[in-house]
Protein 1
Amino acid sequence: MLLVFSKKITPRLTYTFKHFFTRILQIKVDFTTKVEDFIAHEGPKLTYGKQPLGNEIFIRSTDLLFEQGINDVEIKLGNWDGVECFFQTRQEATVQFDIFAATFYLLSRYEEYLPHLRDEHERYPAEESLAFKHQFLHKPLIDIWAYKFKEIIKDKYPTTKLERRNFEFISTIDVDLAYCFKHKGLIRSFAGYLRDLSKFRILDLWYRAMVILGFKKDPFDTFDELISLQKQYGIKTVFFFSVGDYTTFDKNTSSRNSSYRSLIKSVADYANVGLHPSYFTSKDENKLKKEKSRLEAIVNRPIEKSRQHYLRFYLPETYQNLINLEVKEDYTMGYAAHYGFRASTCTPFYFYDLEFEIQTPLKVYPFAVMDGTLKDYLKLPNKKSFEIIIDLAKQVKKVDGTFITLFHNDTLSNRYRWRRWRKIYIDMFKKLSPIT
């Protein structure tokens, strides 16, 4: 066990140290404000303050973990043995920056509470972030810091036995459109025919008719294959189903449709299922509650996982609403327009509510890359897209973290803009499978 001495123990301090040491480095950590208890401790120990007490590991603290609320924070990037860092301290210390204040700043998404511009969907854009501006968005920086710090502990306390966690890959699937042609209703199907006619898509007209008449499988109905791949390669897959009302941004099959309900039930028998709250739920708790109840009625079990449609969420409101509705895991932490690590970690972490200054029970699972980011926003060729996915996975593997991808069921359809993306998905599974 690592004992930490600080003159004041705050919620921010315990939150940060437990993520850094317990969740990333698998090291138990305890805290004390008593000098005599700290001196008597025979195991590894660390002082977090203005002066060391002895020859222990010493990190000179800045004010961030002892403050409350949001304040203007001056950030100046430095370098720690080739790795980006900030909150540098001039006085002698084991590490020449406040590694824990920097961790808290990134992990709590402190910068997202500060004034900023929003994109066309009212989202916090990657371009506003410190990680994007200083080109470390593609790195799980907190985990990298932690693994460098682990070597310091080894050198300082060589007899201490340190455990090692295992790399994990989680594939997540957003179901925005369960079907391409089927179960659209008379008006939407007729509009689809007119659209194909106006653009002279004769093959699509024929394909649409064959699917609706039941002679061909709907191209977006890739669920059997997705579940089969999960089993074949031993990779956990989580499906997020949309059950919201129809809007300009929410065009899935109606949750009242019996075929769609049967599909959701079938997938839930073989994989983890979560809610994909509709576009306007990010600030509307009543709408979120209604959709959660709908999905729970379909699968006949509590829904504890969620990811916002269009990745729209507001801090802290959206997460507060999820907590009120007893959602335990959220998978929205990532950017639409850029790949990388929005919270600079590849380790699931608990949301810290800066409004109430508490660690909440909501566990955040940050994803690293989305199919639409590579294809639609960055417009990358398939080969380059696959290389980026694997490069991100390698970054996570170096720190034994959790690599999470975001794909859609229609990505495997191999139709339209997703041509040959089925191969990318399968090759990714082959490359990252714990079995092969």
Protein 2
Amino acid sequence: MRKDYGYPSLEVIREASAGNETAIKDILKFYDAYICKLCLRPFYYFESGKITMQVDEELKGQIHTEMMKAILKFEIRVK
């Protein structure tokens, strides 16, 4: 059985594509957990020899930047 996590509404998407900062932040917040999962990288501690998974903040920032560019280029066409 699939869970329904909902999606950003068409109104939020329309406002974000028009450049509304709040709407863009809402969309980025909606996808934040997925982006964090994509940005997990192994991190090695020299002192203890342990390897842990941590979010690569630089990569996450790059993904956010590219998403904002894509949102602003997005067009909604109605037939």
